[in-house]
Amino acid sequence: TGADVWRIARTLELPPTAFLMYFSSPAPSRDAFALDSSGRRFRLALAKRPAENPTEGACVFLMRTRAGHHRCGLGELRPSVCQCFPCTLENGMVAITPGTDCACRPWALSDVDVAEELPRLLGRQADAEEYCGVVARWNATVHASPDRAVDFVAYCAFLLEAYDALN
């Protein structure tokens, strides 16, 4: 979410372009932003390290310990989706997507405490709704000036300014 991007960027004093990538949104989504008036939309993801197959690259924040274990280098700064993993909120209930795996945090079904996860998931949902509102404001700005050229760097600057104002 935008809150995650803002928190990471401001804490680490990094521009979002140093740790984010964007990709075409395959389907309409409220969290998908425009870069022009063509109707194409994009979504955010943490950047991946180069790999032979680009879809298999590890997150730029994934670290390997001397013992060979993988850990997230962000710690408590992890995006909310990572903090909640492997849980999701479905119809107001805590759910676990079967077959999910994560290289940065081992887990077992017995590790999931529903009473602990529910507030995190509700917070994540609230952050996602807030982000959709920020994206809607950006998209309205882009459509109001169809001849104005914008790029991903401009979107990231808008995102940080929007969350500076919210926080």
Description of the structure:
By secondary structure, the protein is of the alpha+beta class. It is 37% helix and 14% strand. It has helices spanning 2-12, 80-84, 114-144, 152-166; strands spanning 20-24, 42-46, 62-64, 70-72, 87-90, 93-96. The strands form three sheets. A two-stranded antiparallel ribbon has the order 1-2. It is globular.
Care to give the gist of this entry?
With 167 residues, this protein is an alpha+beta fold.
Comma- or semicolon-separated keywords:
two-stranded antiparallel ribbon; 167 residues; 37% helix; 4 helices; alpha+beta
Summarize the topology:
Layout: H1 2-12, E1 20-24, E2 42-46, E3 62-64, E4 70-72, H2 80-84, E5 87-90, E6 93-96, H3 114-144, H4 152-166
Helix pairs in contact: 1-4
Q: Class by helix and strand content? A: alpha+beta
**Principal-axis shape:** globular
Strand-residue proportion: 5-15%
Q: What's the helical proportion of residues?
A: 25-40%
How many DSSP helices?
4
Average pLDDT number? 86
Number of E-state strands: 6
